[in-house]
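Table 4 source record.
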Amino acid sequence: MKVVIFDMDGTLIDSKKDITISVNHIRDTHYSLEPLSEEFVVEAINMPKRNLSELFYETDVYHEKDRLLFEEHYNIQCVQNPYLYEGVKDTLHTLVNSGIKISVATNAPTQFAIKMLEHLHVDMLFDVIIGADRVSSPKPDAEMLEHILNHYQFDKNNHNAWMIGDNSKDMLSAKNAGIDSLFATWGFSDSSKDDIMLCKPQEILDIVL
């Protein structure tokens, strides 16, 4: 058996426009702050260590009022502009048609992940779609990946698995779970130091198949 676990934002889909719009909605509504650029928001999200409430809203902690408004706004916003990166859909179908098991592990809330992947008509390809709200520790912890591997009754001695993502948290989660990692350079980050780097989704097939 072969298992491929995908990150979502910046790996399967480009969602930066909608994330930025929702972040800026909270900045304007609650803090009367000027809007941030998509580039800044993406860079902040991909920092290995960061305080997003400080970077986005200039507050030390993520206030409940901000979380509630973000989720209310993003629930509508998240399906306005996302798109699959070029080559992703064909690659997913080829993997599934070749008998490869595929799932999604994202630090986004599960409800948004499912909604966005349904909107883009690829949700049915994945056996498991799990977000940070379903575990006690999100990536880079291995918990999300281990949940997926346990779903498949994964055996390290007889099976192969890969984590594909666009930032260091994805790579570390794979290392912590004891599986291989592949770095997607087409997404929110274009470079990585230690991992196998993919320039386009089709290259996944060369490695996995």
